[in-house]
User: What shape does this take?
Amino acid sequence: MNPRKLLLHSFNAAIAAADPLLIVPQHLPKPPSGRTLVVGAGKAAAAMALAVENHWPETAALNGIVVTRYGHGLPTNRITVIEAGHPLPDEQGEQAAREILAEVNKLGADDLLLCLLSGGGSSLLSLPAANVALHDLQAVTRELLRSGATIQEINAVRKHLSVIQGGRLAASCRAPILALVISDVTGDDPTHVASGPCAPDPTTYQEALAILERYQINAPAAVMDTLLAGKQGKLAETPKPGNAVFGKVENRVIARAHDSLAAAGEFFLSQGIPAAILGDAVTGEARAVARVYAALIKEIRHYGHPWKPPVVLISGGETTVTVNGNGRGGRNAEFLLSLAIELDGVKNVYALACDTDGIDGSEHNAGAIVTPDSLRRARKLGNNAAAALADNDSYTFLNQLDDLIVTGPTRTNVNDYRAILVL
Assistant: This one.
C-alpha cells in the first residue's frame, strides 16, 4: 500500500471508531415510566438521533428535536432534525434552541431528557440572552474565531450570552437528564462540548470579559452591557459545580479523540508500521505546532531517535489560527503547509491532517496531505509556500496541488487527526 493510501485508510479507521450509529446504542437507558424527550446539537446530532430511533422500543414514548449543521442531516421519524448555521449561529439555530427549551420546560419528574451533544453545538444551539440580538452574537463569535482564542475561551464567552448553554438547559428541566457526549475538545470535559448545556460551568462573567480584553475583541455594546451587568451581580451566573440542579444529571462521554487515535494506530500496526501516539490534546498555533513536529521528524530521520523509521506519529487535539491574511484555509491545512515548509528537502516523510467532522475550518475539505515533493511541485506551478502561509492561504496552495482531502460530512466529531509517516 502506498503512503497516501496508508494515511487515508488510517483516517477512515479513526472516523469509524467514533461512529455514532455504532457507539450510541451501547449507552441507551431503559425508557422511563413517562415519556422520553430527545434533544441535541452538534455535527453528530442527526446520526446520534437516528441511532436512538433505531434502538428505542416502538411502544415507548419518544419524540424530540436535534439541530445539526447544514448538510449534516439524516432522515428520521420520531425525532425532528433541524439544520442550522455553523460556525456562525443563524436564525434556524436560534429558533431550534427556543423550541428545545420550550419542550424541556414541559417535562415532569417521571419523564427523561436524553441530550445528544457533539462538537459544533455551541453555534447550533444559540439562544441569546435578553437584550443580546442574534447579530450581536454573530459579530462577537466571528471576531473570536479569527483571534486565535481557544475553544474553551470562546465557549466561556458564549455561555454567558446564552439562556440555554453553560448548564442552563439542565437548570430548566424537572426530569432526570442523561447527556450522551461525543467529545471534540481536549480533556473531554462535557462543560466544553456544545458549551455544556447540561454541565456545570466553572467560568464567570468576569472571565468572559477578560477574554474579550485579552484578544482585543471589539464586541457590540449589547454584549459588553450584558457581561458587565453579570460581573456586577445584576444577572444570575451560570450554574456552578456543586449546584443541586446537577443531582439529577449524568453527563457521559461516549466517544473521544484518543479512541480514534488508538484505532488508527492499530491499523498502522496491521500494516507493519509502529505507531507513536503523541497525545490527543495538542493545542497552540498550527504553524508553531508544525515547527515542533518538524524538529522531531528531523531527529528521527537523521539519528533514528527516539524512534527508528519506519514509524508513524499520530496526534489529535485542536490547534488554532490567528488570521492576519486574506486567504482561505483551516487549521489542518495551515499546519500542513507550515510542516511542508519546515521539512523542505527531507525525504520519505508523508503527512495527513484532517478534522474528523469532514470540515477543516469553514472550507469544504476535511484537510489535506503533504508529500516529500509538495514544495517542488508547487514551485513548478510558480506558487510560493511562504507567501501563502503569510496570507493564511493554505487551502488555495494545497488545492492547486490536488492534495486536499474531501470526505463530505462524517456526522461525527472527535477533533483533529494528524498522522505523519516517516519511512
Observations:
- The CA atoms of residues 4 and 350 lie 8 Å apart.
- The chain has a mean pLDDT of 96.
